Amino acid sequence: ERNANPQASALCHLTIGWLHVEATDFERAASRAEETLNPIVEANPFSFFVGRTLLARAYIGLGNLPSARKHLDAIEQRIEIAGVPMESLIVPHYLLNCCDYWLEAGDLDQAQKAAARLHEVTVAAPDRPFLALSHNVMARAAMAAENSHSVRSHLSRAIAIARTARLPLAAWRVYATTARFYENSGEPEKAAKYRCR
After folding, report:
1. How far is residue 3 from each of residues 6, 7, 9, 39, 128, measured CA to CA in Å?
2. pLDDT of residue 185
3. CA of 181: how far to CAs of 89, 100, 154, 186, 196, in Å?
4. Which residues of 16-33 are buried (b: 16+ CB within 10 A; e: fewer)?
5. Whole-angstrom distance, CA of residue 2 vs CA of residue 182
6. CA-CA distance, 97 to 53, in Å (whole number)?
7. Which residues in the chain land under pLDDT 50?
């Protein structure tokens, strides 16, 4: 900020916003991103995509789906209408947001399509944290569809990836989904085990 470099300053603020969102402090994450983004900052495509993806994640976490949709729409317009490509680093975050958004909105078909796309993108890299998270969202979609065989299969793969690679960010989400699955299946001891993990 002292060197009057708004782009570098914005990326620092957005990174702090990501730390808040990963700590499930969605309100502060949204506030940080809203205060940071402006037309000058968003002229840089990287800052635009990072900021809007952060805002979508924060508003999904807050349960504010209309605001989340607004930011997802802005991202899609920038890609499809303006023809600006998204950096590969941001794509998994964006796709995970799409999965979470559609699951929260109750559109299982769209959630499954987004999860399949996330898996396709992450298996090719391979991006192990997001590969584990892709199986996690596929398990969540299968839970919504009441397909316990598919849930078990995806959770098994997600757990194996998270354990082998020691991925704490993915692991806590995978274990939380696993605990919820066992709780809903009437297996409280297994649910407690995964909650502890």
Report:
1. 9, 11, 9, 20, 37
2. 93
3. 30, 17, 12, 9, 15
4. ebbebbeeebbeebbebb
5. 52
6. 8
7. none
Residue 29 contacts residue 57 (beta carbons within 8 Å): yes
Question: CB-based burial of residue 74 (10 Å sphere; 0-12 exposed, 13-18 middle, 19+ buried)?
Answer: middle
Contact 191, 171 (CB under 8 A): no
pLDDT at 76: 96
Distance CA 47, CA 13 (A): 11
For CA atoms 83, 88, 89, 90, give the dihedral sign: positive
**CB 154 within 8 Å of CB 139:** yes
Please write the tens of the pLDDT for every residue from 99-124.
Answer: 999 999 999 999 999 999 999 999 87
**pLDDT-above-90 percentage for the chain:** 86
pLDDT of residue 194: 94
Record the tokens describing residue 140, joined without a space.
Answer: 């969540």
Query: In this structure, what token pair is assigned to residue 64?
Result: 């504010």
Q: How far, in Å, CA of 148 to CA of 182, rounded?
A: 10
